[in-house]
């Protein structure tokens, strides 16, 4: 469950109002704070300064990723793909105020929970999840959205998890492209993340790809590209 990892009160970098926020998650590029926006629970995702980057380049990159994240969220929602609602964007502090998906689990946490539970319907729950992932990827690629950082931590499920739609997040590296190569790489990134985060899920990932293929009419070309990207990956490993 997405609970506050710390109750430390923090202030948003560059925010002159100095309002106190609770840090929920600390990532490599961004911090996620719990907040409220016009009476609703919200999160603030702030891309913080990286001291090893030139300040101008750093600000430019943060602005670009913040802008891309918001644009793609809007495009997803228009296409019926579930994402948090964006409430407000602050370009001065490179922060996005958006809907807080309360009582949610990342797909990563959800799979781990099932793999540790040992209940009789575990397989059924995993297949149903794989099917959600496959259809959601198909819907995204159908409107040329390349996520750019597909992992099981960038997908959320709301309670009750079995009934929840997949909620896609973290679009800072996204792009719009009709190229099968880009879509193949998107799937490859997820495949690598999936198989390295979750042991013994090869069959499950096959189900993701089968459902993707059933729901996306140009999937043949993309899956061909996926195979090419895999082979390049293998060659790279062999050459060291
Ligand atoms: N709208 C949200 N509601 C609830 N939890 C969220 C939300 N957005 C992000 N999170 C949590 O914060 C984590 C990091 O957010 P993310 O946007 O993926 O940033 P990062 O670029 O650091 O990976 C997610 O994996 C999820 O656990
Ligand atoms: Mg993320």
The topology string of helices and strands comes to EEEEHEEEHHEEEEHHH
Count of strand segments = 11
Helix content: 40-55%
What Rg do the Cα atoms give?
A: 19 Å
C-alpha end-to-end distance: 39 Å
CATH homology-level superfamily of the largest domain: Transferase(Phosphotransferase) domain 1
Ligand names:
adenosine-5'-diphosphate, magnesium ion
Contiguous runs where pLDDT drops below 50 for at least 5 residues? 1-7
- For the biggest β-sheet, the strand order reads 1-2-3-4-6-5
- Shape label: globular
CATH domain fold name of the largest domain: Transferase(Phosphotransferase), domain 1
Level-2 CATH architecture of the largest domain: Orthogonal Bundle
Instruction: Note the main sheet.
Output: 6 strands, antiparallel
Describe the structure.
The chain is of the alpha+beta class and 240 residues long. It has 2 domains: 91 residues, Phosphorylase Kinase, domain 1; 136 residues, Orthogonal Bundle (Transferase(Phosphotransferase), domain 1). It contains 6 helices and 11 strands. The strands form 3 sheets. The chain has a 6-stranded antiparallel β-sheet with strand order 1-2-3-4-6-5, covered by helices on one side. The chain has a 3-stranded antiparallel β-sheet with strand order 7-9-10. Strand 3 and strand 4 form a beta hairpin. Helix 3 crosses helix 5 and helix 4 packs across helix 6. The longest helix has 24 residues. It is globular. The termini are far apart. The N terminus is likely disordered. The site of adenosine-5'-diphosphate has 19 residues, from strand 3, strand 4, strand 6 and strand 7.
